[in-house]
Amino acid sequence: MINNEARKSEAKAWFEALRDRICNAFELIEEEFAKGASGDLMPGRFERNAWTRKAKNDDPDSGPGGGGVMSVLRGNVFEKVGVNVSTVYGEFSDSFRGQVPGTKDDPTFWASGISLVAHMCNPHVPAVHMNTRHIVTSKAWFGGGADLTPMFPENHHDDGVRFHSALKAACDRANPDYYKRYKEWCDEYFFLPHRDEPRGLGGIFFDGLDSGEWKADFAFVRDVGEVFLEIYAHIVRGQMNREWTDEERERQLIRRGRYVEFNLLHDRGTKFGLMTGGNTEAILMSMPPAVKWP
Amino acid sequence: MINNEARKSEAKAWFEALRDRICNAFELIEEEFAKGASGDLMPGRFERNAWTRKAKNDDPDSGPGGGGVMSVLRGNVFEKVGVNVSTVYGEFSDSFRGQVPGTKDDPTFWASGISLVAHMCNPHVPAVHMNTRHIVTSKAWFGGGADLTPMFPENHHDDGVRFHSALKAACDRANPDYYKRYKEWCDEYFFLPHRDEPRGLGGIFFDGLDSGEWKADFAFVRDVGEVFLEIYAHIVRGQMNREWTDEERERQLIRRGRYVEFNLLHDRGTKFGLMTGGNTEAILMSMPPAVKWP
Questions:
Q1: For position B58, what pLDDT does the model report?
Q2: For residue A293, is it within any domain?
Q3: Which of B129, B134, B156, B164 is catalytic?
Q4: Mutual orientation of helices B246-265 and A246-265 as an angle, nearest 10°?
Q5: Residue A266 annotated in active site
Q6: What is the pLDDT of residues B60-75, one digit of tens each?
Q7: Which domain does B217 fall in, by range?
Q8: Assuming Cys at both sites, which of A28, A112, A138, B48 could form a disulfide with A102, CB separation 3.0 to 4.6 Å?
Q9: CB contacts < 8 Å between A and B, how many?
Q10: Is the model's pTM score more than 0.90?
């Protein structure tokens, strides 16, 4: 494994700092909404729970360590939003070596990242996912992405344009080729073949990012996190006070089923996490709070 | 592919006849419950929808044909119960050849079966799954199983004993070795490693059944279907009039999440079906009507 403790701790510190900024920003939205609402709503607050990674199913290869912190808010705007940070390290078992770059001759790895999924109370507020991560084996790279999932995609043209513009700006600041490539990667990745439908309005998705300039790559990853927070908070504020009907709520609960199907059938992070002894509660934090398959 | 049209049509006819008997029996339960309830409940009725198998994603290998019928009842005892029968045939694509017995030199197959999943209104009535099938390639075999999933397993000792006794009797009539083997297979199969918990109280699971006596194997498969119907109807009647609390309903919705996790992460039938151009609506009929991951 590449030994660069300074970079590792810098990346880890960033993911945790971004988590703190996101949690603060979302709590502010909860407060604004509670103030604006008639009646006395209690604004939602994040609760944090730390977990420690341990060997699972007595498989010593899944050790040895690290852990993470789950932050969850259940509120009046955010029905359930989970923001997980984790930093884990150890050795890949034989079955995973070769599947992960840079582990052929040396199975040791270190990985740190932030992962966020928000399911909203109001069916007019799009759900969202954002994740960025830094992985170190005998190689070192960044990955991540963000995608927007409105319940009624046909009514969210402007939100989609704004979301993509913000991510494109971050991409363009790093490399004029990134946006096109990462947008297409996102469209390809967040697609449900059995439904023949995309998960939502897309966004960007990238993995294996190692341009040779660690500082520039890290700056891009930070930028993605920052523009995500800014644009998503803006989209939430723009929609959270709209009225909705029981029928719209029903449609929201059904569309959430697609989210579940994608994450359990296709999402690599979910499957990889569950199979490598990751923390089940943290990984499945992405599941919507209430879902229907009528 | 083995050419024995008489056997194929006999098996297909049985799965359809069993479907009819199950649908009738469940509608009778709905009627009994509606009569016993105060107020004027409308007893649930099965609705049927036929589907035709067609090539998916322009993949000619997923053709050519067959289809099925979905029967769904949404009632006052059965919140959602789906009974699917399907008969499909064609050629496996290269990626599946070798994974399926008897397809190495000849990719043609024929498969027919019945599949049932019931999610119940009352949290005290266990959910259930039953499936039997006949598959023909250059080999021919039966598979199937049934397993019981109470929401509060600790309160269903007697139901579990009854369910297992009934299935054991069917196994014993065919072969004294079956029950032990098929019960263990079931325990192993319906297990959620990421939760470190079984799906429910188990039952039996078998595949690749070809004893050399087609008639005997087919008789066993019919017997499994019949004892399943008898014992499950008995269990439903025994629990359907119990009162339940909001808290118990909440716990039911959460436990249903495990059902979703199992079916999308692990169930071979689900994954196989979705990947081979099966009918998505029919395959995902197993999804619970309402679920929570709070």
A1: 47
A2: no
A3: B129
A4: 40
A5: no
A6: 455 568 999 999 999 9
A7: 4-286
A8: A138
A9: 63
A10: yes
